[in-house]
Amino acid sequence: MTENPSHGDQPWEEMLRSMLGDGADEVLAEMRARGFDPSTMSGAQDPMMMQFALSQVQRMLAEPGTGPVNSDVAHDVARQVAVAEGDPSLTGGQAKAATDALSVAELWLDAVTDLPPSVGTARAWSRSEWVEATLPAWNKLAAPVAASVADALATVLADQLPDGVDDGVAMPGMPAGALAGLGMDPAQMMRRLGSAVFGMQVGQAAGTLSREVFGATDIGLPLLDDAHTVLLPTNVDGFAQGLDAPQEEVRLFLALREAAHTRLFTHVTWLRGHLLGIVEQYARGITIDLDVLESQVRDIDMSDPDALRGALSGGVFGLQNTEEQKAVLLRLETTLALVEGWVDEVTAAAALPHLPHSVALREMIRRRRAAGGPAEHTFATLVGLELRPRRSRDAARLFQILMNDGGQAARDSVWDHPDLLPVTGDLDDPAGYPARRASTAEEHADVDAALREIFGDEADAAGEDGRSGEADGSDGADKS
Protein backbone atom coordinates (compact mmCIF):
# COMPACT_ATOMS: atom_id res chain seq x y z
CA MET A 1 0.00 0.00 0.00
CA THR A 2 1.24 3.50 -0.81
CA GLU A 3 2.56 5.38 2.19
CA ASN A 4 0.57 8.44 3.21
CA PRO A 5 2.33 10.24 6.05
CA SER A 6 -0.33 12.93 6.24
CA HIS A 7 -2.64 10.43 7.86
CA GLY A 8 -0.08 8.61 9.95
CA ASP A 9 -1.18 10.23 13.19
CA GLN A 10 -4.90 9.35 12.85
CA PRO A 11 -5.67 6.02 14.59
CA TRP A 12 -9.10 5.64 12.98
CA GLU A 13 -7.67 6.16 9.49
CA GLU A 14 -4.86 3.75 10.29
CA MET A 15 -7.46 1.15 11.19
CA LEU A 16 -9.35 1.75 7.93
CA ARG A 17 -6.15 1.52 5.91
CA SER A 18 -5.11 -1.69 7.65
CA MET A 19 -8.55 -3.13 6.90
CA LEU A 20 -9.03 -1.86 3.33
CA GLY A 21 -5.51 -1.92 1.95
CA ASP A 22 -5.13 -0.29 -1.49
CA GLY A 23 -8.83 0.59 -1.54
CA ALA A 24 -8.57 2.79 1.56
CA ASP A 25 -7.98 6.09 -0.29
CA GLU A 26 -11.11 5.59 -2.36
CA VAL A 27 -13.20 4.76 0.69
CA LEU A 28 -11.84 7.72 2.67
CA ALA A 29 -12.54 10.07 -0.23
CA GLU A 30 -16.08 8.78 -0.50
CA MET A 31 -16.60 9.16 3.26
CA ARG A 32 -15.40 12.77 3.13
CA ALA A 33 -17.65 13.46 0.14
CA ARG A 34 -20.57 12.27 2.25
CA GLY A 35 -19.60 14.59 5.11
CA PHE A 36 -18.09 11.82 7.25
CA ASP A 37 -14.49 12.95 7.86
CA PRO A 38 -12.39 10.42 9.80
CA SER A 39 -9.78 13.09 10.57
CA THR A 40 -12.24 14.66 13.05
CA MET A 41 -12.66 11.46 15.02
CA SER A 42 -9.43 10.92 16.84
CA GLY A 43 -8.50 14.15 18.56
CA ALA A 44 -9.79 13.29 22.01
CA GLN A 45 -9.50 9.54 21.67
CA ASP A 46 -8.18 7.55 24.61
CA PRO A 47 -5.13 5.68 23.19
CA MET A 48 -5.70 2.68 25.46
CA MET A 49 -9.34 2.37 24.44
CA MET A 50 -8.39 2.78 20.78
CA GLN A 51 -5.81 0.04 21.05
CA PHE A 52 -8.37 -2.17 22.77
CA ALA A 53 -10.90 -1.48 20.01
CA LEU A 54 -8.32 -2.28 17.35
CA SER A 55 -7.41 -5.55 19.02
CA GLN A 56 -11.07 -6.51 19.27
CA VAL A 57 -11.67 -5.75 15.59
CA GLN A 58 -8.60 -7.80 14.66
CA ARG A 59 -9.78 -10.72 16.75
CA MET A 60 -13.33 -10.46 15.51
CA LEU A 61 -12.24 -10.53 11.85
CA ALA A 62 -9.70 -13.32 12.41
CA GLU A 63 -12.13 -15.76 14.05
CA PRO A 64 -15.54 -17.08 13.05
CA GLY A 65 -18.43 -14.99 14.34
CA THR A 66 -20.33 -16.09 17.41
CA GLY A 67 -23.74 -14.77 16.39
CA PRO A 68 -25.38 -11.35 16.58
CA VAL A 69 -23.52 -10.61 19.83
CA ASN A 70 -19.83 -11.47 20.03
CA SER A 71 -19.87 -13.17 23.41
CA ASP A 72 -16.08 -13.25 23.74
CA VAL A 73 -15.85 -9.48 23.33
CA ALA A 74 -18.79 -9.02 25.71
CA HIS A 75 -17.06 -11.14 28.33
CA ASP A 76 -13.75 -9.31 28.11
CA VAL A 77 -15.33 -5.86 28.27
CA ALA A 78 -17.69 -6.82 31.10
CA ARG A 79 -14.85 -8.12 33.24
CA GLN A 80 -12.81 -4.97 32.66
CA VAL A 81 -15.71 -2.66 33.51
CA ALA A 82 -16.69 -4.71 36.57
CA VAL A 83 -13.30 -4.21 38.18
CA ALA A 84 -12.75 -0.63 36.99
CA GLU A 85 -13.84 0.78 40.35
CA GLY A 86 -12.43 -2.11 42.33
CA ASP A 87 -13.74 -5.59 42.98
CA PRO A 88 -12.10 -6.76 46.18
CA SER A 89 -12.34 -10.40 47.11
CA LEU A 90 -15.04 -11.01 49.68
CA THR A 91 -13.92 -11.64 53.22
CA GLY A 92 -15.22 -14.60 55.13
CA GLY A 93 -17.23 -12.24 57.30
CA GLN A 94 -18.89 -10.56 54.31
CA ALA A 95 -19.83 -13.87 52.74
CA LYS A 96 -21.22 -15.23 55.99
CA ALA A 97 -23.25 -12.08 56.68
CA ALA A 98 -24.79 -12.29 53.19
CA THR A 99 -25.66 -15.98 53.27
CA ASP A 100 -26.98 -15.71 56.83
CA ALA A 101 -29.23 -12.83 55.75
CA LEU A 102 -30.59 -14.90 52.88
CA SER A 103 -31.27 -17.82 55.22
CA VAL A 104 -33.10 -15.56 57.69
CA ALA A 105 -35.08 -14.08 54.82
CA GLU A 106 -36.36 -17.53 53.86
CA LEU A 107 -37.59 -18.12 57.41
CA TRP A 108 -39.40 -14.78 57.52
CA LEU A 109 -40.99 -15.39 54.12
CA ASP A 110 -42.30 -18.79 55.23
CA ALA A 111 -44.64 -16.91 57.56
CA VAL A 112 -46.17 -14.67 54.88
CA THR A 113 -46.43 -16.75 51.68
CA ASP A 114 -47.43 -20.25 50.75
CA LEU A 115 -44.78 -20.42 48.04
CA PRO A 116 -41.95 -22.57 49.40
CA PRO A 117 -38.28 -21.59 49.48
CA SER A 118 -36.25 -21.95 46.30
CA VAL A 119 -34.32 -25.17 45.85
CA GLY A 120 -30.98 -23.41 45.35
CA THR A 121 -28.36 -22.32 47.84
CA ALA A 122 -27.54 -18.90 49.28
CA ARG A 123 -24.57 -17.30 47.53
CA ALA A 124 -22.35 -14.26 48.15
CA TRP A 125 -20.79 -13.01 44.92
CA SER A 126 -18.20 -10.50 43.85
CA ARG A 127 -18.97 -8.27 40.88
CA SER A 128 -16.89 -10.47 38.59
CA GLU A 129 -18.79 -13.55 39.69
CA TRP A 130 -22.07 -11.79 38.96
CA VAL A 131 -20.82 -10.99 35.44
CA GLU A 132 -19.81 -14.59 34.79
CA ALA A 133 -23.19 -15.94 35.95
CA THR A 134 -25.50 -13.45 34.23
CA LEU A 135 -23.69 -12.61 30.98
CA PRO A 136 -25.23 -15.54 29.03
CA ALA A 137 -28.70 -14.17 29.78
CA TRP A 138 -27.70 -10.65 28.68
CA ASN A 139 -26.29 -12.01 25.42
CA LYS A 140 -29.51 -13.92 24.77
CA LEU A 141 -31.73 -10.95 25.55
CA ALA A 142 -29.76 -8.65 23.26
CA ALA A 143 -29.36 -11.11 20.38
CA PRO A 144 -32.64 -10.49 18.48
CA VAL A 145 -32.23 -6.73 18.25
CA ALA A 146 -28.51 -7.15 17.57
CA ALA A 147 -29.37 -9.35 14.59
CA SER A 148 -31.74 -6.70 13.22
CA VAL A 149 -29.15 -3.96 13.66
CA ALA A 150 -26.40 -6.08 12.05
CA ASP A 151 -28.55 -6.76 8.99
CA ALA A 152 -29.38 -3.07 8.68
CA LEU A 153 -25.72 -2.06 9.04
CA ALA A 154 -24.69 -4.54 6.37
CA THR A 155 -27.38 -3.22 4.02
CA VAL A 156 -26.51 0.44 4.49
CA LEU A 157 -22.73 0.30 4.75
CA ALA A 158 -21.66 -2.55 2.48
CA ASP A 159 -22.08 -0.48 -0.67
CA GLN A 160 -19.59 2.05 0.71
CA LEU A 161 -16.80 -0.53 0.40
CA PRO A 162 -15.22 -1.05 -3.02
CA ASP A 163 -15.51 -4.27 -4.98
CA GLY A 164 -12.77 -6.71 -4.23
CA VAL A 165 -12.21 -5.31 -0.75
CA ASP A 166 -11.12 -8.76 0.37
CA ASP A 167 -8.00 -8.56 -1.78
CA GLY A 168 -4.98 -7.19 -0.02
CA VAL A 169 -6.78 -6.37 3.23
CA ALA A 170 -4.56 -6.53 6.28
CA MET A 171 -5.17 -6.11 9.97
CA PRO A 172 -2.39 -5.36 12.48
CA GLY A 173 -0.54 -8.63 12.90
CA MET A 174 -2.45 -10.26 10.01
CA PRO A 175 -1.18 -10.92 6.48
CA ALA A 176 -2.65 -9.14 3.50
CA GLY A 177 -5.61 -10.96 2.01
CA ALA A 178 -6.64 -12.42 5.36
CA LEU A 179 -10.28 -11.52 4.75
CA ALA A 180 -10.17 -13.26 1.40
CA GLY A 181 -8.80 -16.32 3.15
CA LEU A 182 -11.76 -16.22 5.49
CA GLY A 183 -14.10 -16.08 2.53
CA MET A 184 -15.83 -12.89 3.71
CA ASP A 185 -17.57 -10.37 1.54
CA PRO A 186 -18.11 -6.74 2.68
CA ALA A 187 -21.55 -7.53 4.11
CA GLN A 188 -20.11 -10.34 6.22
CA MET A 189 -17.36 -8.04 7.43
CA MET A 190 -19.92 -5.44 8.50
CA ARG A 191 -21.94 -8.10 10.34
CA ARG A 192 -18.83 -9.15 12.21
CA LEU A 193 -18.08 -5.55 13.01
CA GLY A 194 -21.64 -5.13 14.26
CA SER A 195 -21.35 -8.30 16.32
CA ALA A 196 -18.16 -7.02 17.96
CA VAL A 197 -19.61 -3.58 18.63
CA PHE A 198 -22.74 -5.10 20.15
CA GLY A 199 -20.51 -7.36 22.22
CA MET A 200 -18.78 -4.25 23.54
CA GLN A 201 -22.20 -2.75 24.32
CA VAL A 202 -23.45 -5.83 26.17
CA GLY A 203 -20.18 -6.10 28.05
CA GLN A 204 -20.30 -2.44 29.04
CA ALA A 205 -23.88 -2.90 30.25
CA ALA A 206 -23.23 -6.05 32.26
CA GLY A 207 -20.06 -4.65 33.76
CA THR A 208 -21.79 -1.43 34.79
CA LEU A 209 -24.70 -3.32 36.31
CA SER A 210 -22.34 -5.48 38.33
CA ARG A 211 -21.37 -2.34 40.25
CA GLU A 212 -25.00 -1.40 41.01
CA VAL A 213 -27.11 -4.52 41.58
CA PHE A 214 -27.72 -6.14 44.95
CA GLY A 215 -28.54 -9.65 43.74
CA ALA A 216 -29.60 -11.62 40.68
CA THR A 217 -33.19 -10.34 40.41
CA ASP A 218 -32.98 -6.51 40.59
CA ILE A 219 -34.11 -6.01 37.02
CA GLY A 220 -37.28 -8.06 37.47
CA LEU A 221 -36.25 -10.71 34.95
CA PRO A 222 -34.72 -14.09 35.81
CA LEU A 223 -31.06 -13.90 34.78
CA LEU A 224 -30.01 -17.28 36.22
CA ASP A 225 -30.95 -20.76 35.05
CA ASP A 226 -30.74 -22.12 38.58
CA ALA A 227 -32.62 -21.15 41.73
CA HIS A 228 -29.80 -19.75 43.86
CA THR A 229 -30.37 -16.66 45.97
CA VAL A 230 -27.57 -14.12 45.67
CA LEU A 231 -26.28 -10.99 47.36
CA LEU A 232 -23.33 -8.83 46.33
CA PRO A 233 -21.91 -7.65 49.68
CA THR A 234 -19.73 -4.92 48.14
CA ASN A 235 -22.76 -3.26 46.53
CA VAL A 236 -25.07 -3.83 49.49
CA ASP A 237 -22.57 -2.27 51.89
CA GLY A 238 -22.01 0.67 49.56
CA PHE A 239 -25.77 1.28 49.28
CA ALA A 240 -26.20 1.14 53.06
CA GLN A 241 -23.60 3.82 53.67
CA GLY A 242 -25.21 7.14 54.42
CA LEU A 243 -28.66 5.67 55.11
CA ASP A 244 -30.33 6.14 58.48
CA ALA A 245 -31.04 2.42 58.70
CA PRO A 246 -28.37 0.11 60.15
CA GLN A 247 -26.37 -1.86 57.63
CA GLU A 248 -27.75 -5.16 58.92
CA GLU A 249 -31.33 -3.99 58.36
CA VAL A 250 -30.55 -2.92 54.81
CA ARG A 251 -28.91 -6.27 54.11
CA LEU A 252 -31.88 -8.21 55.49
CA PHE A 253 -34.41 -6.13 53.57
CA LEU A 254 -32.56 -6.64 50.28
CA ALA A 255 -32.19 -10.35 51.10
CA LEU A 256 -35.97 -10.56 51.52
CA ARG A 257 -36.53 -9.06 48.07
CA GLU A 258 -34.01 -11.42 46.47
CA ALA A 259 -35.49 -14.48 48.16
CA ALA A 260 -39.07 -13.45 47.30
CA HIS A 261 -38.19 -12.97 43.64
CA THR A 262 -36.43 -16.33 43.53
CA ARG A 263 -39.39 -18.14 45.12
CA LEU A 264 -41.68 -16.64 42.51
CA PHE A 265 -39.48 -17.53 39.54
CA THR A 266 -38.80 -21.02 40.90
CA HIS A 267 -42.26 -22.21 41.87
CA VAL A 268 -44.39 -20.36 39.32
CA THR A 269 -42.89 -22.54 36.64
CA TRP A 270 -44.40 -20.74 33.66
CA LEU A 271 -43.38 -17.21 34.74
CA ARG A 272 -39.79 -17.28 33.52
CA GLY A 273 -40.74 -18.39 30.03
CA HIS A 274 -43.68 -15.98 29.99
CA LEU A 275 -41.54 -12.92 30.74
CA LEU A 276 -38.64 -13.84 28.49
CA GLY A 277 -41.08 -14.76 25.74
CA ILE A 278 -42.62 -11.28 25.86
CA VAL A 279 -39.17 -9.66 25.65
CA GLU A 280 -38.19 -11.90 22.72
CA GLN A 281 -41.50 -11.22 20.95
CA TYR A 282 -40.84 -7.50 21.22
CA ALA A 283 -37.22 -7.74 20.11
CA ARG A 284 -37.96 -9.94 17.11
CA GLY A 285 -40.63 -7.54 15.95
CA ILE A 286 -38.25 -4.60 15.81
CA THR A 287 -38.02 -2.86 12.46
CA ILE A 288 -35.29 -0.39 11.58
CA ASP A 289 -35.85 2.61 9.37
CA LEU A 290 -33.01 2.29 6.87
CA ASP A 291 -33.40 5.89 5.74
CA VAL A 292 -32.89 7.09 9.32
CA LEU A 293 -29.94 4.75 9.74
CA GLU A 294 -28.29 5.89 6.53
CA SER A 295 -28.67 9.55 7.44
CA GLN A 296 -27.33 9.02 10.96
CA VAL A 297 -24.52 6.51 10.55
CA ARG A 298 -22.19 8.88 8.73
CA ASP A 299 -22.29 11.21 11.76
CA ILE A 300 -21.29 8.53 14.27
CA ASP A 301 -17.74 8.52 15.57
CA MET A 302 -17.20 4.77 15.70
CA SER A 303 -13.83 5.19 17.38
CA ASP A 304 -15.55 6.73 20.42
CA PRO A 305 -16.99 4.10 22.81
CA ASP A 306 -19.62 6.56 24.05
CA ALA A 307 -20.68 7.24 20.48
CA LEU A 308 -20.87 3.52 19.81
CA ARG A 309 -23.09 2.99 22.81
CA GLY A 310 -25.30 5.85 21.72
CA ALA A 311 -25.42 4.47 18.19
CA LEU A 312 -26.90 1.23 19.46
CA SER A 313 -29.79 2.97 21.20
CA GLY A 314 -33.18 2.96 19.59
CA GLY A 315 -33.23 6.68 18.79
CA VAL A 316 -30.25 6.69 16.42
CA PHE A 317 -31.18 3.52 14.59
CA GLY A 318 -34.78 4.57 14.13
CA LEU A 319 -36.41 1.61 15.89
CA GLN A 320 -40.08 1.64 15.00
CA ASN A 321 -42.82 0.58 17.42
CA THR A 322 -45.83 -0.81 15.57
CA GLU A 323 -49.23 -1.13 17.18
CA GLU A 324 -48.41 -4.76 17.88
CA GLN A 325 -45.14 -3.71 19.51
CA LYS A 326 -46.97 -1.23 21.71
CA ALA A 327 -49.36 -3.97 22.85
CA VAL A 328 -46.40 -6.23 23.68
CA LEU A 329 -44.78 -3.42 25.67
CA LEU A 330 -47.98 -2.94 27.64
CA ARG A 331 -48.11 -6.65 28.46
CA LEU A 332 -44.49 -6.58 29.57
CA GLU A 333 -44.98 -3.48 31.71
CA THR A 334 -48.06 -4.98 33.37
CA THR A 335 -46.36 -8.32 34.08
CA LEU A 336 -43.27 -6.60 35.51
CA ALA A 337 -45.53 -4.45 37.69
CA LEU A 338 -47.26 -7.59 38.99
CA VAL A 339 -43.93 -9.25 39.81
CA GLU A 340 -42.69 -6.12 41.56
CA GLY A 341 -46.02 -5.56 43.32
CA TRP A 342 -46.12 -9.10 44.71
CA VAL A 343 -42.50 -8.95 45.85
CA ASP A 344 -43.13 -5.52 47.38
CA GLU A 345 -46.15 -6.73 49.36
CA VAL A 346 -44.62 -10.01 50.52
CA THR A 347 -41.33 -8.35 51.48
CA ALA A 348 -43.13 -5.64 53.45
CA ALA A 349 -45.22 -8.22 55.32
CA ALA A 350 -42.14 -10.28 56.17
CA ALA A 351 -40.01 -7.31 57.21
CA LEU A 352 -42.51 -5.31 59.28
CA PRO A 353 -42.33 -7.42 62.47
CA HIS A 354 -38.53 -7.55 62.43
CA LEU A 355 -37.04 -4.40 60.84
CA PRO A 356 -37.83 -1.02 62.44
CA HIS A 357 -36.86 0.85 59.24
CA SER A 358 -38.75 -1.44 56.87
CA VAL A 359 -41.33 1.19 55.86
CA ALA A 360 -38.64 3.71 54.90
CA LEU A 361 -36.60 1.06 53.09
CA ARG A 362 -39.69 -0.06 51.19
CA GLU A 363 -40.41 3.46 49.98
CA MET A 364 -36.78 4.00 48.97
CA ILE A 365 -36.72 0.86 46.83
CA ARG A 366 -40.13 1.70 45.37
CA ARG A 367 -38.91 5.08 44.18
CA ARG A 368 -35.66 3.63 42.87
CA ARG A 369 -37.55 1.06 40.77
CA ALA A 370 -40.24 3.45 39.54
CA ALA A 371 -37.73 6.13 38.54
CA GLY A 372 -35.66 3.61 36.63
CA GLY A 373 -32.35 2.60 38.08
CA PRO A 374 -29.19 1.63 36.20
CA ALA A 375 -30.63 -1.76 35.26
CA GLU A 376 -33.65 -0.26 33.53
CA HIS A 377 -31.65 2.37 31.66
CA THR A 378 -29.06 -0.17 30.57
CA PHE A 379 -31.65 -2.56 29.22
CA ALA A 380 -33.37 0.31 27.41
CA THR A 381 -30.09 0.99 25.61
CA LEU A 382 -29.55 -2.66 24.74
CA VAL A 383 -32.98 -3.69 23.52
CA GLY A 384 -34.81 -0.43 22.97
CA LEU A 385 -37.32 -0.88 25.80
CA GLU A 386 -37.44 0.05 29.46
CA LEU A 387 -38.17 -2.32 32.31
CA ARG A 388 -39.53 0.23 34.75
CA PRO A 389 -42.54 -1.22 36.56
CA ARG A 390 -44.33 2.13 36.57
CA ARG A 391 -47.51 0.65 37.99
CA SER A 392 -45.99 -1.41 40.78
CA ARG A 393 -47.90 0.58 43.42
CA ASP A 394 -51.21 -0.29 41.75
CA ALA A 395 -50.14 -3.93 41.56
CA ALA A 396 -49.12 -3.93 45.22
CA ARG A 397 -52.53 -2.49 46.14
CA LEU A 398 -54.23 -5.25 44.15
CA PHE A 399 -52.30 -7.93 46.04
CA GLN A 400 -53.09 -6.18 49.32
CA ILE A 401 -56.81 -6.24 48.50
CA LEU A 402 -56.64 -9.95 47.69
CA MET A 403 -54.78 -10.58 50.94
CA ASN A 404 -57.37 -8.68 52.97
CA ASP A 405 -60.27 -10.48 51.29
CA GLY A 406 -58.97 -14.05 51.13
CA GLY A 407 -55.59 -14.31 52.85
CA GLN A 408 -52.30 -15.58 51.50
CA ALA A 409 -53.89 -18.28 49.33
CA ALA A 410 -56.06 -15.73 47.48
CA ARG A 411 -53.13 -13.38 46.96
CA ASP A 412 -50.73 -16.05 45.72
CA SER A 413 -53.35 -17.78 43.52
CA VAL A 414 -52.89 -14.96 40.99
CA TRP A 415 -49.89 -16.98 39.78
CA ASP A 416 -51.84 -20.22 39.25
CA HIS A 417 -51.99 -19.74 35.45
CA PRO A 418 -50.94 -17.04 32.97
CA ASP A 419 -54.53 -16.74 31.72
CA LEU A 420 -55.57 -15.63 35.22
CA LEU A 421 -53.06 -12.78 35.44
CA PRO A 422 -54.55 -9.33 36.01
CA VAL A 423 -54.45 -7.10 32.95
CA THR A 424 -53.86 -3.37 32.60
CA GLY A 425 -57.54 -2.64 33.31
CA ASP A 426 -57.25 -4.49 36.61
CA LEU A 427 -54.45 -2.16 37.66
CA ASP A 428 -56.75 0.76 36.84
CA ASP A 429 -59.34 -0.67 39.25
CA PRO A 430 -57.62 -3.04 41.70
CA ALA A 431 -60.66 -3.13 44.01
CA GLY A 432 -62.82 -4.60 41.26
CA TYR A 433 -60.39 -7.37 40.31
CA PRO A 434 -61.69 -10.06 42.75
CA ALA A 435 -65.22 -9.79 41.36
CA ARG A 436 -63.99 -9.86 37.75
CA ARG A 437 -61.81 -12.86 38.45
CA ALA A 438 -64.69 -14.72 40.11
CA SER A 439 -66.84 -14.04 37.06
CA THR A 440 -64.11 -15.29 34.73
CA ALA A 441 -63.66 -18.41 36.84
CA GLU A 442 -67.40 -19.13 36.56
CA GLU A 443 -67.25 -18.76 32.79
CA HIS A 444 -64.30 -21.16 32.61
CA ALA A 445 -66.15 -23.61 34.84
CA ASP A 446 -69.17 -23.52 32.51
CA VAL A 447 -66.96 -24.16 29.48
CA ASP A 448 -65.19 -27.03 31.26
CA ALA A 449 -68.52 -28.57 32.22
CA ALA A 450 -69.74 -28.36 28.62
CA LEU A 451 -66.54 -29.98 27.34
CA ARG A 452 -66.83 -32.76 29.90
CA GLU A 453 -70.41 -33.35 28.83
CA ILE A 454 -69.49 -33.50 25.13
CA PHE A 455 -66.42 -35.67 25.50
CA GLY A 456 -68.03 -37.68 28.27
CA ASP A 457 -70.88 -38.72 25.96
CA GLU A 458 -68.42 -39.67 23.23
CA ALA A 459 -66.34 -41.65 25.70
CA ASP A 460 -69.44 -43.45 27.00
CA ALA A 461 -70.47 -44.29 23.44
CA ALA A 462 -67.00 -45.59 22.64
CA GLY A 463 -67.11 -47.65 25.80
CA GLU A 464 -70.46 -49.16 24.88
CA ASP A 465 -69.18 -50.07 21.40
CA GLY A 466 -66.16 -51.73 22.93
CA ARG A 467 -68.20 -53.72 25.42
CA SER A 468 -70.63 -54.77 22.66
CA GLY A 469 -67.77 -56.06 20.55
CA GLU A 470 -66.38 -58.05 23.44
CA ALA A 471 -69.78 -59.59 24.11
CA ASP A 472 -70.23 -61.00 20.60
CA GLY A 473 -66.60 -62.03 20.28
CA SER A 474 -65.75 -59.40 17.69
CA ASP A 475 -63.21 -56.57 17.81
CA GLY A 476 -65.89 -53.97 17.11
CA ALA A 477 -64.91 -53.55 13.42
CA ASP A 478 -67.24 -53.92 10.48
CA LYS A 479 -66.22 -57.21 8.83
CA SER A 480 -69.03 -57.47 6.32
TrEMBL record:
Region annotation (Disordered) maps to 424-480
> What are the Basic and acidic residues biased-composition ranges?
439-455, 464-480
Question: Sorted alphabetically, which InterPro entries does this protein's record hold?
Answer: Zinicin_2, Zinicin_2_N
Molecular function per GO: metallopeptidase activity
Pfam families hit by this protein: Zincin_2 (PF10103)
Q: Which residues form a coiled coil?
A: none
Q: Which SUPFAM superfamilies match?
A: Metalloproteases ('zincins'), catalytic domain
Q: Which UniProt keywords apply?
A: Hydrolase, Metalloprotease, Protease
Q: Which domain of life is it from?
A: Bacteria
- Please give the name of this protein: Zinc-dependent metalloprotease
Q: What organism is listed for this UniProt entry?
A: Myceligenerans pegani
